[in-house]
Amino acid sequence: MRTIAIFIILLAITGCAGGSGTSTGNQPNAGMSFAISPSGPSPVVKGETLQLATDPVNLAVTWSVDGGDIQGTIDANGLYRAPDSIPLAAKVIVRANSDNAEATATIQIYTDEALQFGAPRQVSDTAINNLSLLSVVRIGISTSASADQLGVRSGSLSVASAWDNNKDPNTNQPFQPMTSVSQDLGGFQPEMNLTADTNKSQRVNCLINDQDQNPGIFFSDLGGSLSLLFRGSRDQGQSFEAPTQVVIPASGHRKYNASAKVDSNNRYHVVFVESVANAVLRFYQSDDQGKTWQTANTIPAPKTLQLGHTLPNLNVSEDGQKIHICYRETGAVDDEIYLIRSLDGGASFESPVNVSQAAGPEKGACRVASGPQGEIYVSYRQGETAHASPNENADILLKVSTDGGASFGLTKAVHPLLTGKDSFLPFMAVDALGRIDMVWADDQGANDYLPRRIYHSRSSDGGEHFTSEQIIVTPDKDYAFPMGLVHDEAGRLHLQYASQIDEGNFPYHVYHRMAH
């Protein structure tokens, strides 16, 4: 019996033996599973560190980073250091290995506070003649701050762009939707015409990039059906499927000013304006990447909306359940910015909330975005006088809600009010760390409401303070204006804009510029 007892004790001791590791501590039993804490995705700003540990603690493991040093380094004690430059694939996998088990954790590398804008990349191949300042700034059907004509999806960092073209507006040639895609920021591919019938006039509203890096483009048919059309890609922008109608058109009812988003389940959401009894807002969704569309309730509006001036902007939570839409309502003598929300994925919408609460002064197109703690941000342009009067000294304003959009706090100015200048076309993007980036155009004191430069400013404290405005685009000739502003998952900021390349209103080129 004594011999058997000694054998059992020795078996128990030898049964705990494991492989060697680079750190000291207990080793896992054969077949024991363990985890890394935190498992992530954990945010780490480039150049900074994050301490990782095993759970259970103090296991002898070997640490490694997938992809090598370009993705960061990790020492024998589990201290991860992010690279000083963000790699294209900014989501990093860290591994802990023993002889008989492995665990992984995910780290997301982010930009630091000081963004640096890189050189512009030309997107359009040919000169563009349709970007008339009248339609861009005043009416907003072609381009407005309410919708992006730019889409970014990280992983391979695919960037998709869309715009209109009209080679000779003096001969009444139809508008043509165009697109181009860049993979890994190695330059943009040759531009592609998306119009099936080149005799029809169709204009781009907005662009989305889904979870599979497939761009999809919404555009209005200005003749014939007057419908809102969608063309989606299944091969990351190399080709596009035939157009589908988002909504079965009603006779004489035009659809335009669409804004769209994709949630984490690859469900597409779009809001747009329909010219029924002046104008109404419509909200539609697609579960099959834009092949078919389902309508939600007509969005309640406080007053009669006016054609060409109602500029909705859409924000959708990752799970697709929280939907926020801001829009501009133009009355006989005043303007207001409203927000409506749905907390059930678009099945129903609550009553509108007046965000601006400043009757009289003219308001421009709005933008809505959410922060990491559920904050809702709404930005817009506001002049000093009513829209029937000259609009000088217009400012870019921000309103913040900490209760999910039910109410809003005090108005915050994005930049100091510059006497004699008009600021307009504000674009806003909020990254996963809650940093708010704003770009806008101004008229350089000419008081003619025409965009001559593009500015940038950032807030890292929820909109309380913004950095001094920085000129980021000075046009080759007279005019330049933003067309889209999007963060990728690393917080890199992507700007699409148009810049005049010759005298007069035409022509333009479309450019992409990234800040990191």
Task: Describe this structure as you would to a colleague.
By secondary structure, the protein is mostly beta strands. The chain is built from two helices and 37 strands. It has helices spanning 2-14, 133-139; strands at residues 35-37, 42-45, 49-51, 53-55, 62-65, 73-74, 79-81, 91-97, 102-110, 121-122, 150-153, 158-165, 176-182, 192-193, 202-209, 215-221, 228-232, 244-245, 255-262, 268-274, 280-286, 294-295, 313-316, 323-330, 335-342, 353-354, 361-370, 376-386, 395-401, 412-413, 423-430, 436-442, 453-459, 470-473, 480-487, 493-500, 508-515. The protein has a four-stranded mixed β-sheet with strand order 2-9-8-5, with no helix packed on it. Strand 15 and strand 16 (215-221) form a beta hairpin. The chain is globular. Residues 1-29 and 132-143 have low confidence and may be disordered.
Provide a compact summary of the structure.
This protein is 4% helix and 41% strand. With 516 residues, the protein is mainly beta. The longest helix has 13 residues, at 2-14.
How many beta strands in the DSSP annotation?
37
How many helices does DSSP assign? 2
Averaged pLDDT, please? 82
Share of residues in helices: under 10%
Largest sheet: 4 strands, mixed
Structural class given helices, strands, pairing? mainly beta
Which overall shape is indicated by the principal axes computed on the Cα atoms? globular
**End-to-end CA span:** 72 Å
What is the strand content? 35-45%
Round the Cα radius of gyration to an integer and report it.
Answer: 26 Å
Output the strand order for the largest sheet.
2-9-8-5
Low-confidence parts: 1-29, 132-143
